[in-house]
From TrEMBL:
<keyword id="KW-0449">Lipoprotein</keyword>
<feature type="region of interest" description="Disordered">
    <location>
        <begin position="27"/>
        <end position="79"/>
    </location>
</feature>
<dbReference type="Pfam" id="PF07554">
    <property type="entry name" value="FIVAR"/>
</dbReference>
<feature type="compositionally biased region" description="Gly residues">
    <location>
        <begin position="64"/>
        <end position="77"/>
    </location>
</feature>
<keyword id="KW-0732">Signal</keyword>
<feature type="signal peptide">
    <location>
        <begin position="1"/>
        <end position="22"/>
    </location>
</feature>
<feature type="compositionally biased region" description="Pro residues">
    <location>
        <begin position="33"/>
        <end position="61"/>
    </location>
</feature>
<protein>
    <submittedName>
        <fullName>VlhA.4.03 variable lipoprotein family protein N-terminal domain protein</fullName>
    </submittedName>
</protein>
Length: 197
């Protein structure tokens, strides 16, 4: 009887141990894994801007190693423009001077007008020949000569209108003298030609 009780106790003890072992295994298996503690990002350490190192030399001149003008074309362009304007003014004066012979010839019968106009051409020519003449001098010479040319034409018309009869008589006499001169030249030529034959 004692023996049965012992066996029964041992059996119960074994079953109890097994149950306890199983329960312990399940408990440990279901133990949740703890979440890791978040590691906050540390605030950035302020990095102060260092003071600039003083430069003993002043700001370097712009425009290359020698500090030249970085836009040399600007000044050159202005010089070219002035030179072109002076050339154009000289060309205009030269063109006006070229009309001297034809203009002066028109006043061959008007002594005073012819003299005044010839003097204006002479003055303008001296300016044109002066290679050092500035732009304003050339323009002034051109303007003065053009004024003299216009004045000569106006004075001639005024004189003709105010002295119409005298001008008509003079023109007739001049044509007659010209005709007589032409006839005389022809007569002398014929005599010389016939004498040589």
């Amino acid at each position: 009887m004692k023996r049965k009780n012992i066996l029964k106790f041992v059996s119960l003890l074994g079953i109890g141990s097994f149950v306890m072992l199983a329960a312990a295994s399940c408990t440990s298996a279901t133990t949740p894994t703890p979440n890791p503690t978040p590691n906050p990002t540390p605030n950035p350490t302020p990095n102060p801007t260092p003071n600039p190192t003083p430069n003993p030399e002043p700001n370097p001149p712009s425009g290359g190693m020698n500090g030249g003008n970085t836009n040399p074309g600007g000044g050159q362009g202005m010089m070219d423009s002035a030179a072109q304007e002076l050339t154009a003014a000289r060309t205009a004066l030269t063109s006006l001077l070229a009309s001297k012979n034809a203009n002066v010839e028109m006043y061959s019968d008007y002594a005073k007008i012819k003299n005044d106009l010839t003097a204006a051409y002479t003055t303008a020519k001296s300016t044109s020949d002066n290679t050092s003449a500035a732009l304003e001098q050339v323009k002034s010479a051109t303007s003065t000569l053009q004024t003299a040319i216009d004045k000569a034409a106006s004075d001639k018309n005024d004189f003709n209108n105010q002295n119409a009869d005298l001008v008509s008589a003079y023109t007739s006499l001049k044509d007659a003298v010209k005709s007589e001169t032409t006839n005389l030249v022809r007569f002398v030529w014929c005599k010389l030609y016939s004498h040589k034959r």
